[in-house]
Write a structure and sequence with these properties.
Layout (H helix, E strand, L loop, with lengths): L1 E3 L6 H9 L5 H8 L15 E3 L20
Length: about 70
């Protein structure tokens, strides 16, 4: 999947917006886009980024809440 960076986009923001997660996919995206890290943390507007072909996250990871007075 190819996506273009918007104003103030970072690679992890692109992964989150289009794939629904960042764990593991940011590293894959860096492998697919040589030289992308040299552009800095905030990507220039219009930078085309190839994202990995992984299915979007179906359910967000939910952490169990700890109650002090249970």
């Amino acid at each position: 999947m190819r996506v273009a960076a918007r104003q103030h986009d970072t690679l992890d923001a692109l992964c989150w917006r289009h794939l629904g997660r960042t764990a593991g996919v940011v590293e894959q995206a860096l492998d697919l886009n040589p030289g992308l890290a040299a552009l800095g943390p905030v990507l220039p507007i219009g930078t085309v980024v190839v994202l990995p072909d992984t299915p979007p996250a179906t359910e967000p990871h939910v952490q169990r809440l700890v109650q002090l007075w249970d």
